[in-house]
Design brief:
globular; disulfide bond; 10 strands; about 180 residues
Amino acid sequence: MSAVYLLLLLLPLVSAQTYHWGPCPTPKVQPNFNLQQYLGRWYEIAKLPASFARGKCIEANYAIRTDGTIQVLNSQFYKDKVRVAEGTAIVQDPREPARLGVSFSYFTPYSPYLVLTTDYTSLSVVYSCTDILRLFHVEYAWILGRSRFLPPETVQYAKNLLTSEGIDLFRMKATDQTGCKDN
Protein backbone atom coordinates (compact mmCIF):
# COMPACT_ATOMS: atom_id res chain seq x y z
CA MET A 1 0.00 0.00 0.00
CA SER A 2 1.47 3.33 -0.91
CA ALA A 3 1.99 6.05 1.69
CA VAL A 4 -0.30 8.41 -0.24
CA TYR A 5 -3.12 5.87 -0.23
CA LEU A 6 -2.67 5.29 3.50
CA LEU A 7 -2.67 9.04 4.10
CA LEU A 8 -5.94 9.40 2.18
CA LEU A 9 -7.49 6.69 4.36
CA LEU A 10 -6.31 8.33 7.57
CA LEU A 11 -7.12 11.98 6.77
CA PRO A 12 -10.82 11.77 7.70
CA LEU A 13 -9.79 10.45 11.12
CA VAL A 14 -7.57 13.44 11.82
CA SER A 15 -9.61 16.18 10.16
CA ALA A 16 -10.83 17.51 13.52
CA GLN A 17 -7.29 17.53 14.87
CA THR A 18 -4.17 19.46 14.02
CA TYR A 19 -1.67 17.59 11.88
CA HIS A 20 1.59 18.46 10.17
CA TRP A 21 4.02 16.67 7.87
CA GLY A 22 7.02 14.98 9.43
CA PRO A 23 7.67 13.55 12.88
CA CYS A 24 6.61 15.09 16.20
CA PRO A 25 8.67 17.87 17.73
CA THR A 26 10.36 16.95 21.02
CA PRO A 27 9.66 19.79 23.46
CA LYS A 28 11.28 20.08 26.86
CA VAL A 29 9.08 19.15 29.82
CA GLN A 30 8.76 20.58 33.33
CA PRO A 31 11.88 19.73 35.34
CA ASN A 32 11.33 18.28 38.83
CA PHE A 33 7.62 17.75 38.10
CA ASN A 34 5.58 17.06 41.25
CA LEU A 35 2.51 14.96 40.44
CA GLN A 36 0.95 15.45 43.88
CA GLN A 37 0.91 19.23 43.39
CA TYR A 38 -0.52 18.81 39.88
CA LEU A 39 -3.55 16.76 40.98
CA GLY A 40 -6.97 18.37 41.18
CA ARG A 41 -9.08 20.46 38.84
CA TRP A 42 -7.80 22.30 35.77
CA TYR A 43 -9.93 24.36 33.40
CA GLU A 44 -9.25 24.43 29.67
CA ILE A 45 -8.36 27.98 28.63
CA ALA A 46 -7.34 27.27 25.00
CA LYS A 47 -6.47 24.29 22.81
CA LEU A 48 -5.59 23.05 19.39
CA PRO A 49 -8.74 21.42 17.93
CA ALA A 50 -9.70 18.01 19.26
CA SER A 51 -12.67 15.98 18.04
CA PHE A 52 -13.34 14.77 21.58
CA ALA A 53 -13.63 18.29 23.06
CA ARG A 54 -16.06 20.48 21.17
CA GLY A 55 -18.17 21.85 23.99
CA LYS A 56 -17.78 24.61 26.53
CA CYS A 57 -16.96 24.68 30.25
CA ILE A 58 -14.27 22.04 29.61
CA GLU A 59 -12.31 20.88 32.63
CA ALA A 60 -10.13 18.00 33.76
CA ASN A 61 -9.78 16.59 37.24
CA TYR A 62 -6.83 14.38 38.21
CA ALA A 63 -6.71 12.08 41.26
CA ILE A 64 -4.54 9.15 42.37
CA ARG A 65 -6.30 5.77 42.46
CA THR A 66 -5.48 3.09 45.03
CA ASP A 67 -3.54 1.13 42.36
CA GLY A 68 -1.23 4.12 41.79
CA THR A 69 -2.66 5.11 38.41
CA ILE A 70 -4.13 8.54 37.88
CA GLN A 71 -7.86 8.94 37.33
CA VAL A 72 -8.59 11.52 34.63
CA LEU A 73 -12.12 12.91 34.61
CA ASN A 74 -12.77 15.24 31.69
CA SER A 75 -16.08 17.06 31.48
CA GLN A 76 -17.66 19.47 29.05
CA PHE A 77 -21.05 20.97 28.34
CA TYR A 78 -22.02 19.87 24.83
CA LYS A 79 -25.39 19.64 23.07
CA ASP A 80 -27.33 20.78 26.17
CA LYS A 81 -25.81 18.32 28.65
CA VAL A 82 -22.71 17.67 30.70
CA ARG A 83 -20.62 14.90 29.20
CA VAL A 84 -17.93 13.14 31.21
CA ALA A 85 -15.13 10.90 29.99
CA GLU A 86 -13.02 8.89 32.43
CA GLY A 87 -9.50 7.88 31.55
CA THR A 88 -6.30 6.67 33.12
CA ALA A 89 -2.92 8.34 33.19
CA ILE A 90 0.40 6.79 34.15
CA VAL A 91 3.90 8.09 34.68
CA GLN A 92 5.74 6.21 31.95
CA ASP A 93 9.25 6.86 33.25
CA PRO A 94 9.85 7.82 36.90
CA ARG A 95 12.98 9.72 35.80
CA GLU A 96 10.75 12.07 33.76
CA PRO A 97 7.43 12.28 35.65
CA ALA A 98 6.21 15.21 33.49
CA ARG A 99 5.93 12.75 30.57
CA LEU A 100 2.70 10.93 31.23
CA GLY A 101 0.59 8.61 29.13
CA VAL A 102 -3.21 8.93 29.01
CA SER A 103 -5.82 6.49 27.69
CA PHE A 104 -9.60 6.67 27.66
CA SER A 105 -10.15 3.04 26.66
CA TYR A 106 -8.74 -0.36 27.57
CA PHE A 107 -8.32 -0.93 23.84
CA THR A 108 -6.17 2.08 22.96
CA PRO A 109 -2.52 2.63 23.80
CA TYR A 110 -1.46 5.46 26.07
CA SER A 111 -1.10 8.79 24.28
CA PRO A 112 1.61 11.23 25.32
CA TYR A 113 0.63 13.88 27.88
CA LEU A 114 3.63 16.15 28.30
CA VAL A 115 3.53 18.85 30.95
CA LEU A 116 5.78 21.50 29.40
CA THR A 117 5.41 23.90 32.30
CA THR A 118 3.25 24.41 35.36
CA ASP A 119 3.34 26.50 38.49
CA TYR A 120 0.74 24.11 40.02
CA THR A 121 -1.41 27.00 41.30
CA SER A 122 -2.53 28.87 38.19
CA LEU A 123 -1.10 27.64 34.85
CA SER A 124 -0.24 24.43 33.04
CA VAL A 125 0.86 24.00 29.42
CA VAL A 126 0.39 20.50 28.02
CA TYR A 127 1.35 18.97 24.68
CA SER A 128 0.62 15.65 23.01
CA CYS A 129 1.80 14.34 19.66
CA THR A 130 1.52 11.04 17.83
CA ASP A 131 3.60 10.14 14.77
CA ILE A 132 1.84 8.38 11.92
CA LEU A 133 4.58 6.34 10.21
CA ARG A 134 6.85 9.39 10.61
CA LEU A 135 5.08 10.81 7.53
CA PHE A 136 2.97 13.21 9.55
CA HIS A 137 1.93 13.77 13.13
CA VAL A 138 -1.28 14.59 14.97
CA GLU A 139 -0.85 17.03 17.80
CA TYR A 140 -2.79 18.55 20.65
CA ALA A 141 -1.89 21.40 22.95
CA TRP A 142 -3.73 22.80 25.93
CA ILE A 143 -3.40 25.85 28.08
CA LEU A 144 -4.98 25.02 31.44
CA GLY A 145 -5.74 27.17 34.45
CA ARG A 146 -6.79 26.56 38.03
CA SER A 147 -9.51 29.15 37.39
CA ARG A 148 -11.81 29.47 34.37
CA PHE A 149 -10.08 32.64 33.19
CA LEU A 150 -6.41 33.60 33.06
CA PRO A 151 -4.92 37.07 32.54
CA PRO A 152 -4.13 37.73 28.86
CA GLU A 153 -0.41 38.04 29.61
CA THR A 154 -0.41 34.55 31.18
CA VAL A 155 -2.11 33.09 28.10
CA GLN A 156 0.40 34.88 25.88
CA TYR A 157 3.28 33.49 27.97
CA ALA A 158 1.89 29.96 27.43
CA LYS A 159 1.48 30.52 23.69
CA ASN A 160 5.03 31.88 23.42
CA LEU A 161 6.34 28.79 25.20
CA LEU A 162 4.54 26.45 22.79
CA THR A 163 5.75 28.42 19.78
CA SER A 164 9.34 28.39 21.06
CA GLU A 165 9.12 24.57 21.16
CA GLY A 166 8.18 24.44 17.47
CA ILE A 167 4.45 23.97 17.96
CA ASP A 168 2.23 25.73 15.40
CA LEU A 169 -0.64 27.54 17.13
CA PHE A 170 -2.42 28.77 14.01
CA ARG A 171 -5.51 26.68 14.86
CA MET A 172 -5.47 27.30 18.63
CA LYS A 173 -8.83 28.52 19.93
CA ALA A 174 -9.97 29.89 23.27
CA THR A 175 -12.36 27.64 25.18
CA ASP A 176 -15.72 29.13 26.17
CA GLN A 177 -15.82 29.16 29.97
CA THR A 178 -18.75 31.61 30.32
CA GLY A 179 -21.99 30.66 32.07
CA CYS A 180 -20.51 27.50 33.56
CA LYS A 181 -21.76 25.92 36.76
CA ASP A 182 -19.12 24.97 39.31
CA ASN A 183 -19.53 21.68 41.16
